[in-house]
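Changelog note: in this version the structure field was regenerated for every chain. One regenerated record is shown below for reference.
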Amino acid sequence: MRRPARPGRPAGPAGSGRAAGPAQRSQHPSEAWNIFGTLAAGLAFWGAVGFGVDRLLGFRALFLPIGLAVGIGAAMYLVIYRLTRR
């Protein structure tokens, strides 16, 4: 006798009760905008922090590229974490 899938979780192959894999998961169109927004926000925020530190300490462009690298790295981590968590 098969057990029904838990509410809120998609059933895996043959109703095994396991969560569906990446190929079986439905993707919402807004998910791409969420990824884009996360990447853009990471670049904008940490780039602005780097720019502010440059202005505060009197450098021309030392901390701005560092802030941009930290921002894109942190944003990519968040995107990958969110996508693999499901």
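Spot check on this record: The mean pLDDT is 82. Helices lie at 30-57, 63-85.
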